[in-house]
Amino acid sequence: MSGLYPLKFKPFYLDKIWGGEKIKTILNKDFGEIPNCGESWEISGYDGYISVVTNGFLAGNNIEELIEIYMGDLVGEKNYDKFGLQFPLLVKFIDAHQDLSIQVHPGNEMAKQRHSAYGKTEMWYVIDADEGSELISGFNREMDKGKYLESLESGTLDSILNYERVKPGDAFFIPAGRVHAIGKGILLTEIQQTSDVTYRIYDFGRKDANGNVRELHTALALDAIDFKYYGKYKTEYSVRPNASSEIISCPYFTTNIIEFDKKIEKEYVELDSFIIYICLEGEFSIQYDNGSELVKKGETVLIPASFNSIFLKPLGKKVKTLEVYIRENP
Hints:
15% of the residues lie in helices and 40% in strands. The chain is mainly beta and 330 residues long. The chain folds into 2 domains: 229 residues, Jelly Rolls (Sandwich); 82 residues, Jelly Rolls, CATH 2.60.120.10. β16 and β17 form a beta hairpin. It is globular, with a radius of gyration of 20 Å. The two termini are 26 Å apart. 41% of the residues are buried.
């Protein structure tokens, strides 16, 4: 197992014009004096935001350095071959105290051509939502470039977008190309490809701290948008107690939920991937050959790919955690 163990990282807390307090009040995370904490980047290999380990003898090393040393033992052989030293997923908590801008992300091919970057397919899992909170995912009818531009220019964009009222536990898959926005009052976790390429379509005329209107990317977005109407945008899933229950699986990540109130064993011998746990409720102990690691609500932990099996032991009440990895052929 190369001396590896479950790894915790120092979050990056981002001040956002639309951020709030829920990352502190609900997830128990101390973001200090940041006035509007909109995002906590939990595990990141994104340039300028490379996560640094906080626990155990590897504390102080960043995730890029660890991949360089441990390679496939940390991330899985296939992931190492494909992504090299870049960690392939970005895990965030997002607190929308105000509506976020309406935006779209390009796919891999377009992002590579335009920005020498990966595209951005992502998913959302709603942790908390104020009464009546809504988010935007896709269109509410068949659309094309002409109709879309007409709505954008006439200020009636909201009439063609699909609004979804949300509650805790709701999940949404946001593939590259889907127009989307997180609405005010929503706290969620976002799991995405390692990319920060975003095309802003509409931002309610807001101004930044310097009084400048934020840039829109109307022309760039036009080629990236998937105009198809899908009819159903929320992900339906069911939860089996004390077992992994799949929420979303795509080529870029698989996300399961585990709700457990007794000690369970997790076997990963066939997986060839790191595993990420995002604790949403309660606290638990990860027990492995050489020790154990406590995980509390609001914490995110990386299990190295070299681990074949671990035990998850709830401490106190029922635990709810997301389980994330990359499965080659979902």
